[in-house]
UniProtKB/TrEMBL annotation:
<feature type="domain" description="Heparinase II/III-like C-terminal">
    <location>
        <begin position="508"/>
        <end position="689"/>
    </location>
</feature>
<dbReference type="Pfam" id="PF07940">
    <property type="entry name" value="Hepar_II_III_C"/>
</dbReference>
<dbReference type="Pfam" id="PF16332">
    <property type="entry name" value="DUF4962"/>
</dbReference>
<dbReference type="InterPro" id="IPR012364">
    <property type="entry name" value="Oligosacch_lyase"/>
</dbReference>
<feature type="domain" description="Heparinase II N-terminal">
    <location>
        <begin position="45"/>
        <end position="472"/>
    </location>
</feature>
<dbReference type="InterPro" id="IPR032518">
    <property type="entry name" value="HepII_N"/>
</dbReference>
<protein>
    <submittedName>
        <fullName>DUF4962 domain-containing protein</fullName>
    </submittedName>
</protein>
<dbReference type="InterPro" id="IPR013783">
    <property type="entry name" value="Ig-like_fold"/>
</dbReference>
<dbReference type="InterPro" id="IPR008929">
    <property type="entry name" value="Chondroitin_lyas"/>
</dbReference>
<dbReference type="InterPro" id="IPR012480">
    <property type="entry name" value="Hepar_II_III_C"/>
</dbReference>
C-alpha cells in the first residue's frame, strides 16, 4: 500500500548504537537463525503518542506491489506474523506522528496508512538475506493473539477442560503425575499453618542482606500456600482446602501495595507476592464473591503495574536489555499476572503484548542461537526457571510456542557442557550454590528441555543431577525460589517421559560463540574418567552477574576440581563478592603489575572490559582455543598492548597453556592458579594432591626468566569475619621479572590420585622461535612460540 503523508516531513533521529543498546538489525552481515527475521532499531525518541511504520521489500525502491508494511508499531522491535520466502530483502522504518497504538490497531493498519498521515522521513535502508531451511517461528499479530483464548478461569497452566481431566486422572490413580507427593509435601503443610505476616521494614529502611533474604523467602512461602491450596482445592473440590486458600489469598491481598513488598522496596518479594495473587485470583476466581474479586484484582493490578512501569518505562529493556531482574520479571510477573487479568483489565493485554513481543524478538539478551548464557549457569538456572514456566503458560493458553525458537532448542547444551553433573567449582559468574553439587533445579530445567526437544542427553543430565544432589530442596537457593513437587506435577502432566542416553558421542570441544565460552571434555559419561577444561573470554565483559574473568579457565578431572573457582557465596554485594569473587585475583588468570581486569560498578567500563574467542577447534584428537583479553585490562592497565591465551588439550590427557602479554613499558605479570588443597612448590613447578585427583604444573618456559612462586591461603581484601570457620583455599602466584613482552608456557598434567603421571618435554630454540615438544604414551606433540626481542 502506498503510504500517504503530509508534505512537511519530520526528520528522523537515527542514533549510533552503543554496546548497551539494541542494534540495527538485520543487515547484510546478519546470519539469520530463524524465519521470519527479527527487526530492531534504535529508538527515535521517547515512547509517547507516536508509533513506528516498518516496510520490507524485495527491492531497494520499495515498489508497492512487492512491499510488506507493518504499522503502527509501538516499540523499536518487531517480529512479523508471516514466514518469508528465501531471498534478498530490504527494510526501512519511519516514525508515525500522533498515532496512539490501541490493542486492535494492527487490524486497522490499512485505515491508518490509507489516510493522510504525518510521518518522518524514512530511515536508512538495510539489506539482508533469508536462507532456505530455517526454523519457522512467526508470531501472531497483536490483533489475533487472544481471539481464541478462553475468558473463563482458571487459565494459568490448565483451563476448565484440563482441570477436569486432571481430576479424573487423580480419581483413578492417587499417584497420577506425582499428585500424592504434591499433596503430602506441598499442599497439606499449608492448610493449617498460621498466616505469614506482612514483612516489616528494614531497620531505618536500610537493606540488610539476611532480612532481605528472609523477606523474599516468606513471600515465596505465601506463593506456595496460595498456589498449591488453590489448585488442590479446585481439582479435588475440597472445601477445607478452598477455604484455606481463600483465607491466605485475602490476607495477602490486604498487604500494602506501596509498602515493604512493593517493587521498589524489595523486588524479589514483590515478584513473589504478585505471582501469588495471580494464581490465587485465577484458580479461586469462581469461589470468590464479586467484592472479594475486586479486592484481589485491585491489588494484583497495582502490583503488576509497578513491575510493568519499571520494565517498560524506567529500565526500558527494549532499549538497554541488560537489566537481569527486569528481564526476569517479564516471566515471573507480567506473563502470569497479565494472563490472570486478561479480558478484564485493558492494561493487562498491553503489558502481556510487550512481554510476548520481547520473547519473540529480543530474548535472550544474555545469549543467542547457540543457547549460551553470559551470566553463567546459576543465572541461566534462575532465568530459565521462570521463563520456561511462562513459555508453558503461554503455550497452553494462547497456543504461542516459543520453545520452537533456536535458543530454546539449544540452550540445554549450555549446562550440559559448562556445568556437567559431576562438576563442582568449575564454572564462571555469580553462583549462590558455589561449592555444592550442580543445582537440583538446573537438572529439572534440563529435563524440561528434554521434554521440549526429545534430547536424551538432557534426560541423562537430569537423572545424574538428581542422584548427586539429593536433600537440597530446603536450601535457601532452592526453597526460596521453587517447589520441586509442583514442578514435577506440571512436567509429568504436560510432557512425555524421555529415555536417557549417556553422552558417549558428545562433542569434545563446544564453543558457545554467542557468549564466548569454550568447554573441552573427555569422557563426560563417566565421572571417574571425566576431564573438563572451561575457558571464558566474553563480549559481555564484567556486566551484571559476570566477573572480571576474560581468559580465565577452570579444570575439573577424575571427580575433583583442580584449577578451581574458589571462595564462598556470602551475599551479593558482600566484601567477599566485591573484593574476591568478582575480581581477577580470584581467577585462574593473569594480573599485570598486580592489577586485574575492570570489576567495579561503572557499567560502561564493565561492558568495555571484554574478551573474545578468536579460534577454537578439535582436530586429530587434540583441542585448541585462542582467546584475547586485551580490552578487559585496558582501563586498569593503560600500558597494555596485547593479552592472548592459547590452550592446547593434547591427546585428551594434558594441557599446555601459552600466554602472550605485550606492554608499552616494562612490567611484571602474575600467573594465578587456585585450588582447594595446599600446593607443593618446587623450583618452576607445583603439585596438587586432592582426594580423588592430582595435578602436576610446570612452567616450561618464561621469556623473562624464571618465575617467583608463592602461595597463600588468604582471601585478599575480604573481611575475615565473612569466612570465619570456613575451609581455606590456596592461591598460587607465579611472578615474572619486569619486561615489555612476556611469553609464558605452562604444562598442566591431571591424574588420578592413585596413578601419578609425568609428561616429559624438551625445548629447541635454535632459530627465531621456541619449539616445545611434549610426549605422552609414545606420542610427541610440538608447539611453537615466538620469541620476544
Amino acid at each position: 500500500m502506498e503510504v500517504k503523508r503530509k508534505l512537511a516531513e519530520r526528520p528522523l533521529y537515527q542514533p549510533i548504537s552503543g554496546p548497551f543498546h539494541v542494534d540495527y538489525a538485520p543487515d547484510e552481515h546478519t546470519v539469520l537463525a530463524e524465519n521470519p527475521p527479527r527487526f530492531t532499531w534504535m529508538a527515535a525518541q521517547q515512547e509517547d503518542e507516536n508509533a513506528y511504520l516498518l516496510q520490507v521489500s524485495v527491492g531497494p525502491s520499495f515498489e508497492e506491489e512487492e512491499t510488506m508494511t507493518f504499522a503502527p508499531l509501538p516499540y523499536n522491535f518487531f517480529t512479523p506474523d508471516r514466514v518469508f520466502e528465501p531471498g534478498e530483502y530490504y527494510w526501512r522504518y519511519a516514525l508515525l506522528v500522533d498515532q496512539p497504538v490501541q490493542q486492535d490497531s494492527e487490524a486497522k493498519a490499512d485505515a491508518v496508512l490509507g489516510k493522510q498521515q504525518e510521518m518522518s522521513v524514512w530511515s536508512e535502508v538495510r539489506r539482508f538475506t533469508v536462507p532456505a531451511g530455517l526454523p519457522e517461528t512467526p508470531l501472531p499479530s497483536r490483533a489475533q493473539r487472544y481471539v481464541a483464548t478462553d475468558t473463563s478461569h482458571p487459565r494459568l497452566w490448565l483451563g476448565e477442560s484440563g482441570l477436569r481431566a486432571l481430576a479424573d486422572g487423580i480419581a483413578s490413580d492417587a499417584t497420577y503425575c506425582g499428585w500424592d507427593v504434591f499433596m503430602e509435601k506441598s499442599v497439606e503443610p499449608w492448610a493449617n499453618r498460621e498466616m505469614i505476616s506482612e514483612p516489616m521494614p528494614y531497620p531505618e529502611n536500610k537493606r540488610v542482606a539476611p532480612l532481605w533474604r528472609q523477606m523474599y523467602i516468606d513471600c515465596q512461602e505465601t506463593l506456595y500456600a496460595i498456589r498449591h491450596l488453590s489448585i488442590a482445592g479446585r481439582v479435588l473440590r475440597d472445601e477445607r482446602l478452598l477455604g484455606a486458600a481463600k483465607t491466605w489469598l485475602l490476607h495477602v491481598a490486604a498487604w500494602d501495595t506501596e509498602g515493604t513488598t512493593s517493587r521498589d522496596y524489595n523486588d524479589e518479594a514483590a515478584f513473589r507476592v504478585a505471582a501469588a495473587l495471580a494464581w490465587g485470583y485465577d484458580w479461586l476466581h469462581d469461589e470468590l464473591t464479586s467484592d472479594e474479586q475486586e479486592v484481589v484484582r485491585r491489588s494484583l493490578l497495582r502490583r503488576t503495574e509497578q513491575v510493568a512501569q519499571h520494565v517498560m518505562v524506567r529500565s526500558k529493556i527494549h532499549h538497554v536489555p541488560y537489566d537481569s531482574h527486569a528481564v526476569r520479571s517479564l516471566s515471573s510477573v507480567l506473563v502470569p499476572c497479565c494472563m490472570a487479568l486478561l479480558h478484564e483489565e485493558q492494561q493487562a493485554a498491553e503489558w502481556l503484548d510487550y512481554a510476548i513481543d520481547y520473547y519473540a524478538c529480543l530474548y535472550s539478551p544474555w545469549g543467542g542461537s547457540d543457547g549460551g548464557w553470559a551470566e553463567g549457569p546459576m543465572y541461566w538456572t534462575t532465568g530459565m526457571a521462570y521463563v520456561t514456566e511462562a513459555m508453558n503458560l503461554l503455550r497452553n493458553y494462547a497456543g504461542i510456542d516459543f520453545f520452537r525458537r533456536p535458543f530454546f532448542q539449544r540452550t540445554g547444551d549450555f549446562p550440559l557442557y559448562v556445568y556437567p553433573p559431576d562438576a563442582r567449582r568449575a564454572s564462571f559468574g555469580d553462583q549462590s550454590t558455589l561449592g555444592d553439587p550442580v543445582n537440583l533445579k538446573t537438572g529439572y530445567l534440563v529435563r524440561q528441555l528434554a521434554g521440549v526437544t526429545g534430547n536424551r542427553w538432557y534426560q541423562w543430565y537430569f537423572e545424574r543431577v538428581r542422584q548427586s544432589d539429593p536433600g537440597t530442596e530446603g536450601a535457601f537457593y532452592n526453597y526460596g525460589w521453587w517447589d520441586f513437587n509442583f514442578d514435577d506435577l506440571v512436567y509429568r502432566h504436560d510432557y512425555p517421559q524421555v529415555e536417557e542416553e549417556s553422552p558417549v558421542d558428545i562433542e569434545p570441544l563446544k564453543w558457545f560463540r554467542d557468549v564466548g565460552w569454550v568447554a573441552m571434555h573427555h569422557r563426560m559419561d563417566d565421572p571417574d574418567e571425566h576431564v573438563m577444561l572451561l575457558l571464558k573470554s566474553s563480549r559481555y565483559g564484567s556486566i551484571s552477574h559476570s566477573h572480571a574473568d576474560q581468559n580465565s579457565f577452570t579444570l575439573h578431572a577424575f571427580g575433583e576440581p583442580l584449577a578451581a573457582d574458589t571462595g564462598y557465596y556470602i551475599a551479593h554485594g558482600s566484601s567477599f563478592h566485591r573484593e574476591w569473587r568478582r575480581q581477577t585475583r580470584s581467577k585462574n588468570n593473569l594480573l599485570i603489575g598486580g592489577t586485574g581486569q575492570y570489576a567495579e560498578n561503572n557499567k560502561v567500563l564493565n561492558m568495555a572490559a571484554t574478551g573474545q574467542i578468536e579460534e577454537a577447534y578439535w582436530r586429530d584428537g587434540d583441542g585448541y582455543v585462542r582467546a584475547v583479553a586485551t580490552d578487559a585490562y585496558a582501563s586498569t592497565v593503560p600500558h597494555v598492548k596485547r593479552v592472548i591465551r592459547e590452550i592446547h588439550f593434547l591427546q585428551s590427557s594434558y594441557f599446555v597453556i601459552v600466554d602472550h602479554i605485550d606492554l608499552e613499558k616494562p612490567d611484571s605479570v602474575q600467573w594465578l592458579f587456585h585450588a582447594l588443597h595446599p600446593l607443593q612448590l618446587k623450583g618452576q613447578s607445583f603439585r596438587l594432591n586432592g582426594n580423588k585427583a592430582g595435578l602436576e604444573g610446570t612452567f616450561v618456559y618464561a621469556s623473562s626468566g624464571e618465575l617467583s612462586l608463592s602461595q597463600t591461603d588468604q582471601f585478599a581484601e575480604v573481611d575475615p569475619k565473612e569466612y570465619e570457620g570456613l575451609e581455606r583455599h590456596y592461591h598460587l602466584s607465579a611472578e615474572t621479572r619486569p619486561a615489555s613482552s612476556h611469553r609464558i608456557v605452562t604444562l598442566l598434567v591431571p591424574y588420578k590420585i592413585e596413578e601419578p603421571k609425568y609428561v616429559p618435554y624438551f625445548i629447541d630454540d635454535q632459530d627465531h622461535g621456541i619449539h616445545l615438544y611434549f610426549t605422552d604414551n609414545g606420542v610427541t606433540k610440538k608447539i611453537e612460540v615466538s620469541k620476544t626481542y
